[in-house]
Amino acid sequence: MPKGGRQILSLVPVVAPFVVLIALWQFSVDFFQVREFLLPGPWKVVQAMAGGDIPWTRHILFTGAAILGAFALAASAGVLLGTAIAWSQPVARSLTPFLVFVNVLPKVAIAPLFMLWLGYGIWPNMLIGALIGFFPVVINTAVGLTQIEDDMLDLGRVFNAPTWKIFLKIRMPNALPYILSALKVTATAAVVGAVVGEFVASQAGLGFVIVTTQSSMNTPVAFAALAWISIIGLLLYGAVSGIAAIAAPWAQGSDR
């Protein structure tokens, strides 16, 4: 089979669930004659996504910036905290319980506090998204930096490598697949967190669109906002997966 045909066939398992979902969705709406304000059909949602009544570009850019900011904060804070935990046992003993405490806090409950402290805008949404997404990066970074074969560390000591060189040349490459795997989880968590922030403390963004359309029961627009959120999340996840395939190709087999 030609290479182009193989590439098309490889996309079938990826596209098939979406096609089945949309087909079942359309069939359910037509067969049960569901009213539009309860469940609009796929075509109505597509029309709403391209409609001019809502300034989609403004809301998409606002939400996209909040998601990217939340992801960047979660990734950088997670790697730094995970490195600190792996570097020092006293730091690990003192920091780990506090991080678990922060992780189990109900983020929806503290979102109004961020609004009170920071006001309306993008920063509360970014912080909520970062709080939801940072913990997997912390754990995976610490595990990747510490779970190393003793032979590799002994090899570094045989050559009298200093601690910082062992960290950069042995520990960090070993941790890279763990970190990249956690970033895939963080990519989706950042989307959830940023949108949750927009539900509570925002005057723009796709989450704000969903909240404002509830009063008017404009369900097609709400579904259109959900579709745009999903597209942003898929793009971010795909970008992280692509970076992981380039930065750590040796780990891709085990990741699947």
TrEMBL record:
Q: Which organism is it from?
A: Phreatobacter aquaticus
One family from Pfam that matches here is BPD_transp_1
Q: Where in the cell is it found?
A: Cell membrane
Q: Name one GO biological process term.
A: transmembrane transport
Swiss-Prot/TrEMBL keywords = Cell membrane, Membrane, Transmembrane, Transmembrane helix, Transport
Looking at the UniProt entry, the stretches that span the membrane are 7-27, 60-86, 98-120, 126-145, 175-201, 221-248
List the InterPro entries: MetI-like, MetI-like_sf
High-level lineage: Bacteria, Pseudomonadati, Pseudomonadota, Alphaproteobacteria, Hyphomicrobiales
Name of the protein this chain belongs to: ABC transporter permease
